[in-house]
């Protein structure tokens, strides 16, 4: 079996970095949605409180996903 050339490896790396913002955004949206549903329906919090927590957790999840993707 032959080893892939450097040009092919460069294409793979570029393809992965192009998708990186999508994964970060998806991580943030899922975390925000989860915490919103938990706060709003499981804990019976107000709409304003649920939205604030969703934004907070979504931002933290995006930051965490960004840090993990740059390892």
Could you characterize the architecture of this molecule?
With 71 residues, this protein is mainly alpha-helical. It has one domain (20-69). 85% of the residues lie in helices and 0% in strands. The protein contains two helices and no strands. It has helices at 6-42, 47-69. Helix 1 (6-42) runs antiparallel to helix 2. The longest helix has 37 residues, at 6-42. The two termini are 30 Å apart. 11% of the residues are buried. The model has no long low-confidence stretch (mean pLDDT 84).
Structural class: mainly alpha
| Morphology call | rod-shaped
Helix content: over 70%
* Order of helix and strand elements from N to C terminus: HH
Uncertain parts? none
N- to C-terminal distance: 30 Å
Can you summarize the main beta sheet? none
Number of domains: 1
Radius of gyration: 18 Å
Number of contiguous helices: 2
Q: Which whole number gives the mean pLDDT?
A: 84
């Amino acid at each position: 079996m032959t080893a892939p050339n450097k040009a092919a490896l460069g294409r793979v790396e570029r393809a992965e970095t192009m998708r990186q913002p999508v994964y970060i955004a998806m991580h943030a949206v899922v975390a925000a949605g989860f915490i919103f549903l938990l706060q709003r329906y499981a804990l019976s919090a107000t709409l304003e409180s649920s939205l604030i927590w969703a934004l907070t957790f979504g931002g933290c999840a995006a930051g965490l996903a960004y840090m993990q993707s740059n390892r």
